[in-house]
Design goal:
Layout lengths: L9 H5 L8 E2 L2 H10 L3 E6 L4 H11 L2 H10 L1 E6 L4 H15 L6 E5 L5 E5 L4 H17 L1 H18 L11 H14 L16 H14 L2 H16 L13 E2 L7 E2 L2 E2 H18 L2 H18 L7 E4 L2 E2 L2 E2 L7 H8 L1 H10 L26 H18 L7 E6 H21 L7 H26 E2 L2 E2 L2 E3 L2 E2 L6 H18 L2 H17 L32 H16 L2 H20 L5 H12 L2 E6 L7 H8 L6 E5 L20 E6 L2 E2 L6 H8 L1
Helix pairs in contact: 4-6, 5-7, 8-9, 8-21, 9-10, 9-11, 9-22, 11-12, 11-16, 12-16, 12-17, 13-14, 16-17, 16-18, 18-19, 18-20, 19-20, 20-21, 20-22, 21-22, 23-24
Length: 678
């Protein structure tokens, strides 16, 4: 009997009609395996995963394969996004056994959850052979299987160990990390390494802060080149905005078409901060349209942001997005069709499959004559209207707490920068205002949803769907990302409620996730006990739980003046510092927070009767050093510690600047404030 029909996960629901007798991850599944004396087969994936769909069609929808699975195993289906703790444990085992990992992940384990054979995608013929071989080994070579499982658990226990070496994350180490990234930088195509190429958002955030602190032009050039290459590439949706998960090639041409919430949230921060620091018109446009993508395509009214858009449409990857020259002419006519083909590098040979091309931006549109921009915008509108008549990719509409936290932080930063840089005279002022309005509404919707639905009895839940919260407990990244988001909302709105909520989350994390030596586990001390307790300090597709929590602790400490949170952050960052020195590409968010700590971070409070329009507020946000916090409002505004006991000066607005809890005299002019922020 398939038991997935009642799941909250869209990924599990995709498998609810399989002939496989799937169980969700639960104690009852393992009890059933013990009763039958058979192994469990744990299949881990996610809704937007292309090869997960392929394996489902080839094997899990096949009656004969399903019979083999049902007769010899207890099959368990896991959504990696819903249960990142389960995914982390078995991915570590898969990497230990095979030297690589990915999804779909296929794990055979004993009835107590001990893995003894792991892999990823298997074609049907290979999978059938594997099922038969494992079933035979379980019956005839049980002792060898159990020894193998014990060895795997010992190996992954070591890989997830805490309490290792610690060192301060100081300036020389951050300088070395920036130099390491420069050494791995792809000077021709942007980004780091070769294909497949993932958007290096966290490394770019680090390099932006490193440039701002040190003036290093190389770091800024790496960010500008990579940001432009991605924005012009096929990895970016040239019609509707939003970035795909990664490029299958080294030059950003052909994407893996799934669009993830976390990638777009982190990239929105990159383009927003690049726009703030340089005024770059391309960065401005991409930030605007990525914010619009989040609000239009992923926001669920009355809830939060959905997790992803699928890679496939009707089982075909890229069906929605690819074009031929003839299709462009059909929609646009001869002249504009040729113009679009040249603009978007659509050729007869094609850059994708079957002579189709993924749209890339081959010409400049941000710094050209107004008539060219108008023509480009008209072409984009017509193509998007035509594309909307095609079959569309499915949306994974579960709401993940951590990823919504990333989106809230990104939109809060975007709204602050947009308020600085957009004037009524700008040609896109109306569009920017419209994007700001819908993005602000989506951000507040998501924050309210997290605060009222995901926060249950003081503890975070990981996911919700259709307004109903799921059972999986929040993991460390949920607490860190949501706390950082609530701190960002506090700065944007001046509302004390968000700071109070952030403090509660951080206190819970310090109480339930702490590990020896200042480190943190990824699961709480009262969470479900897995074969090991994960504690991964490295940043991957999203910030590690440890990096996310450190970011929240640093920001909260700066906003409240409570030093114990900073001390916890510094101790935790010390546990990551040795990894920053060796593997800069996988510690980008930790290094980003390290730059904030090294800078101060600055605490900037502007007392004013006009937080929205005061030039001091604009100057503070425009010139804020790395990781600085900025609040603005009336003196002694309730719930805003940085405004406490800070009066107007001679009846005038004043800016109070502190750095690492050491304060300067209040200033009343923009020039004085800019000089203090140096």
């Amino acid at each position: 009997m398939n038991r997935l029909a009642g799941a909250t996960s869209p990924y599990l629901l995709q498998h609810a009609d399989n002939p496989v007798a799937w169980w969700p991850w639960c104690d009852e599944a393992f009890t059933e395996a013990k009763r039958r004396d058979v192994p469990v087969l744990i299949s881990v994936g996610y809704a937007a995963c292309h090869w997960c769909h392929v394996m489902a069609h080839e094997s899990f929808e096949n009656e004969q394969v399903a019979a083999l699975m049902n007769d010899n195993f207890v099959p368990i289906k896991v959504d990696r996004e819903e249960r990142p703790d389960v995914d982390a444990v078995y991915m570590t085992a898969t990497q230990a056994m095979t030297g690589q990992g990915g999804w779909p992940m296929t794990v055979f384990a004993t009835p107590d959850g001990t893995p003894f054979f792991c892999g990823t995608y298997f074609p049907r013929t290979n999978f059938v052979q594997l099922l038969q071989s494992v079933a035979t080994a379980w019956q005839d070579q049980r002792e060898a299987v159990l020894r193998q499982g014990a060895a795997v658990v010992e190996a992954i226990g070591g890989a997830q160990a805490v309490g290792g070496p610690s060192a301060p994350l100081d300036a020389p180490l951050l300088d070395a990390a920036a130099a390491s990234l420069a050494g791995e930088y792809d000077g021709r195509n942007g980004g780091f390494g070769d294909a497949p190429k993932f958007p290096p958002h966290m490394n770019l955030l680090f390099l932006l802060r490193h440039h701002q602190r040190t003036g290093d032009q190389r770091s800024l050039e790496i960010v500008r080149h990579t940001a432009e290459a991605m924005a012009r590439g096929g990895i970016y949706d040239q019609l509707a905005g939003g970035f795909a998960r990664y490029s299958v090639d080294a030059h950003w041409t052909v994407p893996h078409f799934e669009k993830m919430l976390y990638d777009n949230a982190l990239l929105l921060r990159v383009y927003t901060q690049l726009w703030r620091l340089t005024g770059d018109p391309l960065a401005r446009r991409i930030a605007r349209d990525t914010a619009r993508f989040l609000a239009d395509e992923l926001h669920r009214p009355g809830e939060g942001f959905a997790s992803a858009l699928d890679a496939d449409t009707d089982g075909v990857e890229g069906l929605t997005y690819a074009w031929t020259p003839a299709q462009l002419v059909e929609v646009l006519g001869e002249d504009d069709g040729r113009f679009a083909a040249d603009l978007f590098a659509v050729t007869e040979a094609g850059t994708f499959e079957h002579g189709t091309s993924v749209l890339r931006l081959a010409r400049d549109v941000d710094d050209v004559a107004p008539e060219i921009r108008v023509r480009w915008q008209q072409v984009v509108g017509q193509l998007l209207t035509a594309r909307d008549t095609r079959p569309q990719p499915a949306r994974d509409d579960k709401v993940v707490a951590a990823w919504n936290g990333l989106a809230i932080t990104a939109i809060a930063e975007f709204l602050q920068v947009a308020a600085l840089h957009v004037t009524p005279q700008d040609e896109d002022a109306n569009l920017m205002d419209g994007v700001g309005i819908v993005a602000d509404g989506a951000m507040r919707d998501a924050a309210e949803h997290l605060a009222t639905v995901h926060l249950v009895d003081g503890r975070l839940r990981r996911v919700s769907r259709d307004g109903l919260v799921g059972e999986p407990a929040g993991v460390l990244e949920d607490y860190g990302c949501v706390a950082e988001a609530f701190c960002a909302l506090h700065q944007l709105t001046g509302e004390g409620r968000w700071l109070t909520l952030a403090g509660g989350l951080l206190d819970t994390a310090l109480e339930h996730f702490a590990a020896p030596g200042g480190a943190f586990y990824d699961t709480a001390d009262d969470a479900e006990q897995l074969v090991t307790r994960p504690a991964d300090p490295t940043d991957n597709a999203t910030p590690s739980g440890r990096s996310a929590l450190i970011a929240g602790l640093v920001t909260y400490s700066a906003l409240t003046g409570e030093t114990r949170y900073r001390e916890a952050a510094e101790e935790a960052l010390g546990t990551v510092a040795p990894i920053v020195g060796r593997h800069a590409r996988f510690t980008g968010y930790a290094a980003t927070v390290g730059e904030a700590l090294l800078s101060g971070p600055y605490e900037i409070a502007v007392v004013t009767d006009d937080p929205a329009g005061d030039p001091l507020v604009a100057a503070a946000r425009r010139h804020a050093p790395p990781g600085a916090v900025v609040v603005a409002g009336r003196p002694d505004q309730p719930g805003v510690p940085l405004l406490a006991d800070r009066p107007l000066v001679d009846g005038r607005s004043a800016a109070y600047v502190c750095q690492g809890f050491v304060c300067q005299r209040p200033v009343t002019t923009v020039d004085e404030l800019v000089a203090e922020l140096g």
